[in-house]
Design goal:
Elements: E1 6-7, E2 13-14, H1 29-38, H2 45-52, H3 57-62, H4 65-70, H5 75-97, H6 99-102, E3 106-107, E4 121-122, E5 126-127, E6 141-145, H7 155-176, E7 180-184, E8 186-187, E9 196-197, E10 200-201, H8 205-219, H9 225-231, E11 236-241, E12 247-257, H10 261-264, E13 271-272, H11 276-282, H12 288-294, E14 297-298, E15 300-303, E16 306-309, H13 317-328, H14 330-343, H15 353-362, E17 375-380, E18 399-404, H16 409-412, H17 414-421, E19 424-427, H18 438-445, E20 451-455, H19 468-486, E21 497-503, H20 513-525, E22 531-535, H21 538-552, E23 560-561, H22 566-574, H23 579-582, E24 586-588, E25 593-595, H24 598-603, E26 607-610, H25 622-631, H26 637-643, H27 655-669, E27 675-682, H28 688-698, E28 704-708, H29 715-727, E29 739-744, H30 749-765, E30 775-782, E31 795-798, H31 804-820, H32 828-834, H33 839-850, H34 858-872, E32 878-879, H35 880-887, E33 911-917, E34 921-927, H36 930-942, H37 948-957, H38 968-980, H39 997-1005, H40 1009-1020, H41 1025-1039, H42 1042-1055, H43 1060-1080, H44 1088-1122, H45 1132-1148, H46 1152-1155, ...
Parallel strand pairs: 3-5, 4-11, 6-7, 17-18, 17-21, 18-20, 19-20, 21-22, 22-23, 27-30, 27-31, 28-29, 29-30, 41-43
Antiparallel strand pairs: 1-2, 7-12, 8-9, 10-12, 11-12, 13-14, 15-16, 24-25, 26-28, 32-34, 33-34, 35-36, 37-38, 37-42, 39-40, 39-42, 40-41, 42-43
Helix pairs in contact: 1-2, 7-8, 15-22, 19-20, 29-30, 33-36, 34-36, 34-37, 37-40, 40-41, 41-42, 41-43, 42-43, 43-44, 43-45, 44-45, 44-49, 45-51, 45-52, 51-52, 54-56, 56-57, 57-58, 57-59, 58-59, 59-61
């Protein structure tokens, strides 16, 4: 290290040694003097004092502060010298034990004469060049300065130190004609290792540049200043990183010296010892001699590793001779410099690596649009700001994951670049650890949907970075988890993804995390064929290559790109995209087009967005796209695009196309609901999805069109994304363009309803109230029935027969196809539709294709599996990876050029490719047409004797299908669905709904084999509670093997304890065992022991059903709080308890105690009603002895028997309230619910038979019956007709009850009213029910003589409201009060005084509804029982049946209620009264004829409430048990 000299009194510089021995004790007095001179905060004069006192290293170690003061060194410097010595001792002690310093990694210096290289130093790394003299004149020599310890030094002194060293070094380099770099912030011995990167703190970089330029002018001869300024480059500030690659806040300051021969010519360069400008100013006050001494000339040259002044001893003859000789030789030195420059002229690059990059990054296709690689994984390290503009090529890559080793990437690195332009999900490596099913992890990470950015060395979530030496220990295992996860066959497609190592910083250490990660991928992928390494320059590549070769003995050069700059790499990769992929994408806006930012589109990962400029500038192959479509593949946007190009025949318009465009869509847009829906119901393979996409393509400039990807997404997430698409790049709600969202092939309408609810909620959350729909859902679903139906307001049906007009279009299209394609005979998808699903045509295809089928062959087994899945599971497929693995294609040498379809051989014509949007997105194959699959399955059975049981068994027992491979999750779901999912169609019989269609088909085709299939299913789905439940059901329904059924039910419970449906199975086993035992018992009467056994089973079953009820209650509480799951309340436990109660009555009717005669049966009624005890019956039985054993056992079940009626009645009342007061959100009938209600009715009839034995004619004729008995008989009659509850009476409005029956019910209530007192039990309830019965009668027979005058009934209601109200009657009383007391426009009917309390009644009603019906109302909404009509009295109460008459049909009403069109119907508007009000928060404050009264009314559909607070609206009023609701809301001017 070259150090400054010390000037003697005569101005000459004293030469001194440049190297300090490692040990202080070995220093002589010269070394001590040199060490003092290096201390920036101690003046040079003190070095001279110690030197004169002959202080060596040994004496320095013994010095104390007092000794220095004795030497006339002031206290300040003395303390500093002692402090610096102690620091040095401490540092050396640390260095001797620190392993880090023993193995500091080497690094190269910053590229010479560059300022924008992507380069940084790492603290404590060692520069791999030493301080040197002139080498070949071009290779720079180097000099190091620690440049630290400036605590007590002014900025001016620091700058002086800097400029002094630069001037001296620069003069030496220029006079030696060598390039050179002086480094500040680089240490040297003895304090540091030679070339150790230290870094120095910089407050103001600009001052260094300014000061250096200023000093040059004062220290060099005037004639040379311009040349010198060009030779001395401006200071360069190279950032220094910590060992963990984070910023240290320090820099190495470097100054390059480049004495070009053109600049320096034959000149030589002196410097002045002081600034000559200042000496001239002092000239007037100082004598000439002094000035000359101060401004002595110095002449420096590079002498080995130091700069030496040849005029240090100007008076010395020897020194002057050396100086003169050097000056005389300067011409020769200049010539040598010129020759050296000519040798090092830049060689023109001639590389083929651009072409190699194109090949490697696309897998040979040379197009990224059609790349062999479906996915890319990027591994990268610390980037530099100057690189960012050349990394744009990464933004468009399909990056599944980025493994980023830059801990500051989020602030300044690559992640920051991506975050500005694209949407990424930031993850920690620990999130890849397999702690749950792989599919769930992939789903949570959104892998394959959005780039997963993995911070591999801290930098996020308070995760601290690690240095090179500790990274493997602290973070290596977690990165191993990431690498292993990404390389799994069930995550990324085998051999279809590329790992790209992008070296943005040099990797020079054998422990570098990048190298360790390379090792992991190398091991997982078993080679380097799927690895591409990109290095920014040759030296970076050399380090990387040598480290890998040293570690693994393999050459990586074949997989490396290193001769291209990042600018060239960027341009090359970007050129591999088509113009379509590179261009911006646009959405329709309020007044034109708006840009769809890529970051926004990335965030909408659940939507496939159709832009207005879709496909423009693309390079897709037209024939390839059309061929795939005509063969049976799904239509793509390219098919529509190509059909619009000049010379092409237009895309075929189906008959319903114009009806949708011209009628349905405009009608939808005229509604006021935020989210509306219309449906395309279609037979599979008849073009329903194609029609839906054709609609989207046509409307892409009027709507923001998108298709929902998959059906399993979180609906909250989907709703958020849909509303984001709606509001993207819009500021004014009025200019929003509505979204047209296509839903394709949902399995259940309930799921579509559920999604619609979520979208409505999200619209409201984002203040999305509007006077027109914001979201239009196009729901494309398979039809349950093949019967052709006419189009309705919101639904069209696509059948399997073309109209005459469509046939002509298909004929014309076929002519065009046959002209272009030679293989048109394999266009089965097109031809099946053209031939109206001709059985003969389909049969011919299948017979010809399957000829020679042999189930022993693998491709035959696979096609059999595919057709079976297609027949029994919608949208079933197998992943390409599964097919390749099963067919052994992955091991073939030609695998990269081999397609999965090739492995199916001649069967490949029956298959097509598709993209599966599962938790991981992947390519799959499926059968081209459902009719082909169905016929194939029949052919396999009839011609080749391959049964469904055989194929299903093969599917369940072949482990490879369920190994770690892509598509495993979807396959498991599909297989599960084929075994479990039952068909609840309206046409199917109850027995046909017991098992899935596949299980039913296997049972029918090969009886008994279904058990083997189900047992194999249980082994395959070992931890699946539903499969265990299925086995239990199979054993108790089919085999009557109840012990095995209980075992399977128990296993299901153990797997899923908190599921009410699983719990219900345990109860069902007992119920069926009981029913089976009774049906097999031929004894009549039943024996006492058997009776005991049956009743014991009944008690067990009731307990099990009650547990089901409790779990069901807990489920809905959780769902209600979560507000996400809208699955309805499970009523199976309540129905089950009723069924057991009915069985108990059947048992008791078969024992002699209760079955001998009518009297004994009446006694049974008394016992089960709790009115007579068993012991009392026994006491009064004349055959007591004979029946003793019966009474003995019956006494054991007294609690069951005495409470039987009350428990049944409680369940009936609950279910009546549930079904009558709550309805579906979307007015659609649930087949399962209808069947449940039918079974409840069956149970009720049995209940009525036992407990309601009144005969109305007998009651009215027999005037001699006692009054009490008459009252009881009247109650029994009402109960028998379900007229003893308000819900039963309301149900009469919709269940076609006869007017005569309603009159008899009213007659009974009049009788009760006249023969009971207000204080009697039940009088209050009878009064309320009488009011309901009267209203029902007014709607079915308004002219009835039994009907009270409206005012009389209103007065009765008013009197009832004054009485204390039992909690059980609060809801029905306050509901009917709100209905009747809503203020009238005519005073006589107003009940004005009581209407003042209407708000109180509404509040009490809502509280009662909340207590009784919430949260079992989850997935339901309160039913509107009455609407407010225009007339008065009874006639103002309009029922649903009245609305039906206005609309025309119940089906039409269901549709119009759902979309709101019903309120625009003229007859409806003439029937209902329009009410006005003003918007207040989420409700309307309704005006009434009572000026004192304003009623808060909530909208039935919250999204229909649009406008500012206080805006006036008009609406119709509906009355529900949860309060009045507003319907058909319209703004008022």
């Amino acid at each position: 290290m070259a150090d400054r000299g010390i000037l003697e009194d005569n101005g000459s510089e004293v030469s001194h040694s440049t190297e300090l021995p490692a040990e202080i004790k070995d220093w002589d007095k010269n070394h001590v003097r040199d060490w003092i001179l290096r201390l920036t905060d101690v003046d040079d004069e003190y070095a001279k004092i110690l030197y004169n006192q002959k202080i060596s290293g040994s004496s320095l170690l013994l010095l104390e502060k007092a000794d220095l003061i004795d030497l006339n060194i002031e206290l300040g410097p003395a303390k500093l010298i002692i402090h610096r010595r102690d620091e040095l001792i401490k540092l050396k002690a640390q260095q001797s034990v620190s392993p880090g310093n023993q193995s500091s990694k080497s690094c190269k210096p910053y590229p010479f004469s560059q300022y924008h290289a992507a380069y940084r130093y790492q603290e404590n790394s060692i520069l791999d060049v030493t301080e040197s003299g002139a080498l070949n004149l071009i290779e720079p020599c180097h000099e190091y300065k620690a440049f630290i310890n400036f605590e007590n030094v002014t900025t001016e002194e620091k700058l002086k130190k800097f400029t002094e060293e630069v001037i001296r070094f620069a003069a030496a380099c220029m006079n030696s004609r060598t390039n050179g770099t002086i480094h500040f912030g680089v240490g040297d011995r003895p304090e540091f290792t030679h070339g150790q990167i230290l870094g120095t703190k910089i407050e103001d970089k600009e001052t260094f540049d300014q000061k250096l330029a200023d000093v040059i002018e004062g220290r060099f001869e005037y004639k040379h200043i311009d040349v010198v300024k060009k030779c001395i480059k401006p200071p360069r500030f190279v950032e220094v990183l910590e060992a963990d690659m984070t910023g240290s806040g320090k820099y190495v300051i470097e100054v390059d010296i480049e004495p070009s021969s053109l600049l320096c010519e034959d000149n030589f360069f002196h410097i002045y010892s002081v600034d000559t400008r200042k000496s001239k100013k002092r000239f007037k006050t100082r004598d000439l001699k002094t000035d000359e001494k101060d401004s002595a000339k110095l002449f420096y040259i590079r002498d080995n590793s130091s700069s030496r002044n040849l005029l240090a001893q100007a008076s010395s003859t020897k020194s002057l001779e050396e100086y003169n000789k050097y000056v005389d030789n300067i011409v020769r030195l200049s010539q040598l410099r010129k020759e050296a420059e000519e040798k090092h002229l830049t060689v023109v690059k001639n590389s083929v690596q651009g072409s190699r990059l194109c090949e490697m990054i696309t897998g040979g296709s040379r197009s990224l649009d059609k790349s062999h690689f479906e996915r890319y994984v990027l591994v990268t390290n610390k980037s530099h700001p100057v690189q960012k503009e050349y990394l744009a090529f990464l933004l468009d890559m399909n990056l599944t994951a980025v493994l980023d080793f830059d801990p500051e990437s989020a602030e300044t690195g690559l992640n920051n670049l991506f975050d500005e332009k694209r949407n990424v999900n930031v993850h920690l490596p620990v999130q890849y650890k397999i702690t749950e099913p792989v599919e769930e992890i992939a789903s949570k990470l959104k892998l394959t949907r959005t780039t997963s950015w993995v911070f591999c060395n801290g930098g996020i979530k308070e995760e601290k970075p690690s240095d090179v030496n500790n990274w493997l220990l602290e973070k290596g295992s977690s990165i191993r988890d990431v690498v292993s996860f990404l390389c799994r066959k069930d995550v990324l497609p085998q051999k279809k993804f590329l790992i790209m190592f992008l070296l943005l910083s040099d990797v020079t250490d054998k422990h570098d995390p990048m190298l360790e990660t390379f090792s992991m991928f190398y091991q997982e992928l078993k080679g380097t064929e799927q690895i591409l390494c990109i290095c920014g320059n040759g030296s970076s590549y050399t380090y990387w290559k040598e480290l890998i070769e040293a570690r693994y003995g393999v050459s990586i050069s074949r997989r490396c790109i290193y001769e291209l700059s990042f600018a060239e790499i960027n341009g090359t990769v970007l050129s591999l995209w088509s113009e379509n992929r590179k261009s911006s994408r646009f959405l329709p806006g309020g007044g034109g087009k708006v840009l769809l930012p890529k970051k926004v589109e990335d965030s909408l990962d659940r939507l496939s967005i159709l832009c207005v400029n879709q496909c423009e500038g693309g390079n897709e192959d037209k024939m390839e796209q059309e061929e795939r479509f005509y063969k049976g593949g799904k239509v793509s946007w390219w098919n529509f695009y190509f059909s619009e190009q000049p010379g092409s025949m237009p895309f075929i318009k189906r008959d319903n196309f114009d009806y949708i465009i011209d009628t349905i869509i405009p009608d939808m847009c005229s509604l006021t609901q935020a989210c509306v829906r219309f449906n395309i119901l279609h037979i599979p393979g008849c073009g329903g999805t194609t029609l839906a996409m054709h609609v989207l393509w046509t409307l892409k400039e009027k709507f923001r069109c998108a298709v929902l990807k998959g059906k399993t997404a979180d609906y909250d997430d989907v709703a958020r994304q849909v509303v984001t698409l709606l509001t993207c790049e819009t500021t004014d709600q009025q200019t929003r363009v509505p979204v047209l969202l296509m839903l394709d092939d949902f399995d259940e309408t309930d799921a579509v309803n559920d999604l619609q609810q979520h979208i409505e909620k999200e619209c409201l959350k984002k203040n999305g109230s509007s006077r027109s729909p914001q979201i239009v859902l196009l729901n494309c679903m398979r039809a349950e029935s093949q019967a052709q139906t006419e189009a309705t307001d919101d639904t069209v049906f696509i059948g399997n027969q073309l109209s005459g007009k469509e046939q002509k279009l298909f004929e014309k299209k076929l002519e065009e196809i046959e002209k272009i394609y030679k293989n048109a005979e394999t266009f089965y998808g097109f031809m099946i539709l053209k031939k109206d699903f001709s059985t003969e045509y389909i049969q011919g295809i299948v017979k010809n294709t399957l000829k020679g089928f042999n189930f022993k062959h693998k491709h035959a087994q696979l096609i059999a599996v595919l057709v079976l899945l297609d027949c029994y599971c919608k949208n079933a497929n197998l992943s390409v990876s599964v097919c390749e693995e099963f067919l052994g294609l992955a091991t073939r040498p030609d695998f990269e050029s081999c397609k999965a379809e090739d492995g199916f051989r001649k069967f490949s014509t029956l298959l097509t490719r598709c993209t599966e949007e599962s938790s991981v997105v992947y390519e799959a194959v499926r059968v081209i047409h459902s009719s082909i699959a169905k016929r194939c399955l029949e052919e396999l059975t009839t011609t080749f004797n391959v049964s469904k049981a055989q194929i299903t068994d093969f599917l369940l027992t072949t482990d490879l299908f369920y190994d770690c491979i892509q598509g495993k999750e979807k396959l498991m779901q599909d297989v599960h669905s084929t075994l479990v999912k039952r068909n609840y169609s309206a046409e199917s019989l109850s027995a046909e709904c017991q098992f899935s269609p596949l299980v039913q088909a296997i049972t029918k085709e090969t009886p008994g084999f279904e058990e083997n299939v189900l047992l194999n299913a249980a082994k395959r789905f070992e931890k699946d509670a539903v499969i265990s439940q299925l086995l239990s059901r199979y054993h108790y329904l089919r085999k009557k093997a109840f012990r095995e059924a209980k075992d399977w039910a128990k296993k299901a419970r153990d797997l899923q304890r908190d599921n009410s449906y699983i719990c219900d199975t345990s109860a069902q086993v007992i119920k069926h065992e009981l029913k089976d035992a009774i049906s097999n018992d031929k004894d009549d009467p039943i024996k006492p022991e058997k009776m005991k056994e049956y009743l014991k089973m009944a008690v067990s079953a009731i307990e099990a059903f009650r547990e089901t009820q409790e779990i069901a209650r807990k489920e809905v509480v959780v769902r209600y709080k979560g507000k996400k799951d809208f699955s309805p309340y499970n009523t199976a436990g309540r129905l089950g308890e009723l069924q057991i109660a009915v069985i108990v009555t059947d048992i008791l009717e078969r024992i002699p105690v209760f079955s001998l005669d009518e009297l004994r049966r009446n006694i049974l009624t008394q016992v089960l009603s709790g009115k007579t005890k068993i012991v009392d019956v026994a006491k009064n039985d004349p055959k007591k002895q004979k029946h003793a054993s019966y009474y003995h056992f019956l006494q054991d079940f007294a609690e069951l028997l005495h409470n039987l009626k009350d428990n049944m009645k409680k369940q009936f009342d609950f279910l009546d309230n549930y079904y009558v007061n709550l309805g579906s959100f979307y007015s659609q009938k649930d087949i399962r619910e209808l069947r449940t209600r039918q079974e409840v009715l069956r149970c009720f009839r049995q209940y009525a038979k036992v407990f309601c034995k009144s005969d109305s004619k007998e009651l009215m004729k027999n005037r001699m019956l006692m009054s009490m008995l008459k009252i009881e008989k009247a109650h029994q009659y009402l109960e028998k007709n379900k007229a003893d509850s308000y819900s039963g009476l309301l149900d009469c409005l919709s269940n076609e009850a006869s007017a005569a029956n309603i009159e008899q019910i009213v007659e009974r209530y009049i009788f009760l009213f006249e023969n009971t007192r207000p204080q009697d039990d039940g009088h209050f309830k009878d009064t309320v029910n009488f009011i309901y019965a009267s209203i029902v009668l007014s709607r079915v027979r308004p002219e009835s003589k039994l009907l009270w005058a409206y005012m009389k009934l209103l007065n009765l209601l008013c009197d009832t409201l004054k009485r204390p109200t039992p909690l059980s009657e609060s809801l029905p009383l306050h509901f009917i009060s709100v209905v009747m007391l809503w203020p009238e426009t005519i005073d006589i009917f107003s009940g004005r005084n009581l209407s003042d309390k209407l708000e109180s009644y509404i509040s009490q009603m809502r509280n009662s509804f909340s207590n009784e019906m919430k949260p079992v109302c989850i997935g339901k909404r309160a039913v509107v029982h009455f609407y407010l009509g225009k007339k008065t009295g009874y006639e103002r109460l309009i029922t649903q049946k009245d609305i039906h008459k206005c609309v025309g049909s119940e089906q039409s009403m269901t549709t119009q209620l759902q979309n709101g069109k019903i309120w625009k119907h003229e007859k409806v508007r003439n029937t209902l009264r329009k009410v006005t009000g003003r918007i207040c928060k989420n409700a309307i404050l309704a005006d009434t004829p009572n000026e004192k009264l304003k009623v808060q009314v909530y909208p039935m559909f919250r999204s229909q409430l649009s406008g500012e607070l206080g805006a006036k609206v008009s609406f119709f009023v509906g009355f529900t048990m949860n309060g009045p609701v507003a319907l058909g809301i319209q703004p008022e001017s």
